[in-house]
């Protein structure tokens, strides 16, 4: 991947609805080579898809929660079970394996506190094998972007 590919990616991260013509102009390429590069990035799995950036609160999911989970045991069966079950829970938008005191960090969206209680009691607790859960509620966002930084 060269610098021109990275320019294309950043332009599409800023506005995934750019026409090929507009994208080509933004990255200083002619349309045909620009489209070829985009298709190659898609075929190689670098560009994995396109989506709409939606305001969660306007959608009805006003509460963002970071949930850190520590497992009781780290054997293959328990880890696979936890990860499989988490993948099936719609409220979990992201699940990251972490270093440090906790094993996983989840980003969860729910409409209200009652829904969060339901999420913990009826979706997380039944997974089993969880030693502890630590929750942080987001009450404001300072920065949020999907655009990768430039390499320095």
Tags for this model:
Alpha-Beta Plaits; alpha+beta; Arc Repressor Mutant, subunit A; four-stranded antiparallel β-sheet; 2 domains; elongated; 152 residues; 6 helices; 4 strands
Class from helix and strand fractions: alpha+beta
Radius of gyration: 20 Å
In total, how many domains does the architecture comprise? 2
Widest sheet: strand ordering: 2-3-1-4
* Beta-strand content estimate: 15-25%
CATH superfamily of the largest domain: Lrp/AsnC effector binding domain/regulation of amino acid metabolism (RAM) domain
Helical fraction equals 25-40%
**How confident overall, as mean pLDDT?**
96
Measure the end-to-end span: 16 Å
Large-scale geometry: elongated
The CATH architecture category of the largest domain equals: 2-Layer Sandwich
Multimeric status of the protein: single chain
Q: What is the CATH third-level topology name of the largest domain?
A: Alpha-Beta Plaits
What does it look like?
With 152 residues, the protein is α+β, with helices and mostly antiparallel strands. 39% of the residues lie in helices and 20% in strands. The chain is built from 6 helices and 4 strands; from the N terminus they run ααααβαββαβ. Strands 2-3-1-4 form a 4-stranded antiparallel β-sheet. Strand 2 (92-97) and strand 3 (104-110) form a beta hairpin. Helix 2 (20-26) packs across helix 3 (31-43). The longest helix is centred in the first third of the chain and has 13 residues, at 31-43. The mean pLDDT is 96.
């Amino acid at each position: 991947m060269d610098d021109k590919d990275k320019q294309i990616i950043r332009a599409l991260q800023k506005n995934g609805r750019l026409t090929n013509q507009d994208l080509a102009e933004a990255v200083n390429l002619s349309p045909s080579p620009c489209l070829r590069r985009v298709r190659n990035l898609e075929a190689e799995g670098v560009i994995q898809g396109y989506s709409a950036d939606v305001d969660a609160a306007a959608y009805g999911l006003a509460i963002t929660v970071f949930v850190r989970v520590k497992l009781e045991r780290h054997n293959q069966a328990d880890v696979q079970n936890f990860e499989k079950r988490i993948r099936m829970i719609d409220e979990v938008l992201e699940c990251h394996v972490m270093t440090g005191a906790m094993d996983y960090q989840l980003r969860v969206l729910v409409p209200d506190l009652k829904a969060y209680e339901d999420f913990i009691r009826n979706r997380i607790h039944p997974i089993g094998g969880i030693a502890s859960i630590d929750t942080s509620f987001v009450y404001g966002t300072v920065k949020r972007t999907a655009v990768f930084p430039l390499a320095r």
